[in-house]
Design brief:
Shape: extended
Helix content: 40-55%
GO cellular component, one term: cytosol
Distance between the termini: 48 Å
Protein name: Hikeshi-like C-terminal domain-containing protein
InterPro entries: Hikeshi-like_C, OPI10
Radius of gyration: 21 Å
Largest sheet: 2 strands, antiparallel
Pfam families: Hikeshi-like_C
Number of strands: 2
Structural class: mainly alpha
GO molecular function: nuclear import signal receptor activity
Strand content: under 5%
Number of helices: 3
């Protein structure tokens, strides 16, 4: 048992974890098949989510822009991971929060 998490007699949950090794072509075909099964409304929703997510990313990055001496600007690399962590946290808390993001 791990020193990070130890099981006790009160633990009642069981989880199974597995790995499947498949040819990349087979995985691509499965992904393509799932994509083709999406309804037009799902494609539109994915398109809206992607646009709003990218707009949110752009706004966040520009808010961390710092001017440089030569007249250009830079964005700290840590801003990307902070944005990703925050976006992930917000999605977990409210999976539909993106609907409130302006495009």
């Amino acid at each position: 048992l791990s020193h990070i998490h130890s099981l006790t007699e009160t633990d009642t949950s069981t989880a199974m974890l597995g790995i499947s090794i498949e040819p990349i072509g087979e995985l691509d075909a499965k992904q393509h098949q799932r994509t083709m099964q999406l309804q037009p409304s799902q494609h539109q929703t994915l398109d809206r989510v992607a646009k709003k997510m990218l707009r949110n990313f752009e706004t966040y990055m520009l808010s961390h822009e710092a001017p440089l001496v030569n007249g250009t600007s830079a964005i700290p690399g840590t801003s990307v991971s902070r944005w990703a962590n925050e976006f992930d946290r917000r999605i977990r808390f409210n999976p539909r929060f993106w609907e409130g993001i302006d495009t």
